[in-house]
Amino acid sequence: MAHVFISIGSNVERDRHFRQGLSALIEYFPDYIHSDVYESEPVGFSGKNFYNSVFATHTDMPLPDLCALLKQIERDNGRTPQDKKFSPRTLDLDILFYDDMICDTPAQLPRDEITKNAFVLRPLAEIAPEFVHPVQGCSMAEIWQAYDNQKQKLWKVEFSLS
């Protein structure tokens, strides 16, 4: 069983799409850990604030199948393949880690934005502080402690699925 971490983000009808994305993940992976939900400003473009979190689970699903599942959940929530990288999103589901796999296809692993974006790193360090980044060789807690990007602000929000 692979230990998998998935980032969840939404800034278009964010409450609805975030809930639907998280609910879909729970339906497929009922044994999970979920970070607090954070609100953050968009990075790389102007737009509405995002809700972000990290979802962790174990799966025997091969990586290509997991990628396809996440893309389908995104499409089910109004995401289209034509959506630009730095643009508003109904739902964004990205695999951050699949065990300690390092690859570029079918997904970039580990995901490059882990060490660059507070909205990914903080919730990841919250639920997996001892998990060691296979390229950096440091734990998520160590990377978060050393993180210094004053431009990226985020704050915890009250969130409940019910």
TrEMBL record:
Pathway: Cofactor biosynthesis; tetrahydrofolate biosynthesis; 2-amino-4-hydroxy-6-hydroxymethyl-7,8-dihydropteridine diphosphate from 7,8-dihydroneopterin triphosphate: step 4/4. It is an enzyme of class 2 (transferase). Signal peptide: none annotated. Residues 5-129 form the 7,8-dihydro-6-hydroxymethylpterin-pyrophosphokinase domain. One of its GO terms (biological process) is folic acid biosynthetic process. GO terms for molecular function: 2-amino-4-hydroxy-6-hydroxymethyldihydropteridine diphosphokinase activity; ATP binding; kinase activity. Its EC number is 2.7.6.3. Keywords: ATP-binding, Folate biosynthesis, Kinase, Nucleotide-binding, Transferase. This is 2-amino-4-hydroxy-6-hydroxymethyldihydropteridine diphosphokinase. It comes from Pseudoalteromonas rubra. The gene is folK.
